[in-house]
Amino acid sequence: MRFRLTHPVRPALAMVLVGAIAAPFLVPALGAAKSRSVIAAKIDKVTVSPFAATGTTVTVTGHVTLPTDTAAERRRTRVILALRNGAGATERHTAKINAKRVFTHRWKTGLTGKLTLSVTVTISGRRTGKTVTKAITITDPNAPRQLIGTFRLTAGAAPSGGSPTGTYFEMLSAGGAPLGNQSSPAPNKDYTPLSPGADGGLRTNAYQPAPSPAFAGGSSGGALASAIIAPVPFFGVNFSVATGQTDPQLGTHDPLPVITARGGVLTGQISAWVAQWNGQSFNQGTPKPDGTLPTPHDEPVGDLRRRHGRVHPRLEEPDRRRPVHGFTGRWHL
Length: 333
What we know:
The protein is mostly beta strands. It is 10% helix and 38% strand.
């Protein structure tokens, strides 16, 4: 193409002519780049199921922005989800989008720890757009976890001719036979049912010491501690339970109670568990504050029960057995 000019062309005019000639060829290229840039995925929600013994269920929900929102384009679209741990182990999954360009995918993973979730969009098998990532943490259900808070106690019961339930105390003779408590509020006098105290139960985040004085008569009489359990009659005199930094019987340091969950099983130590009755204190903890385990004894053990959609820690059988003047106290929380 030639231009016939009747006047000299100034440099500025030449630049205008070049731009005018080139513009029709640049517009389509810019439009294509803009279309590719709007393809994107967004992670809207990630949920992780807790306390799964055989793996953890991960659910990812998000949506995709497409350059051409047609049914055909949506059918060609796939979302690639990858979950990676710090060691490089990766799980990959593929999800489709619905008519609203929303995707939801659920799977059970064996990966634990600090993980990276990445989401990428493909159209007709070709990756396009930016990969989005999100950091998530999955706790190993079999890793020990210290439970800090209050273990709320269920009130005990001991029907006549039936097995005891809930929280209760049993005194055993040297030969292992039960010593009946004639003051027990239960029909079955072999057991003394216990009720939650002012704190609702045993705390692992704070001591629950007895008041001062600890007994109704100062140095004798019924026990007044009422944080863990409510005082209950034992042979006509109330007894109760307390935990404190200094053991009232031994005069040594008592560690704070510790309960640990591993794979749904509870273990730990309640060295500070002290029973008080008629001016006397009896350390009933396991192990003893100095770490010893006199005979007989039982280690604290229990489990986690799932109820009404929540996980409630409940000590099923944390027996505390210690000789008390030739007898043994058995505690079931």
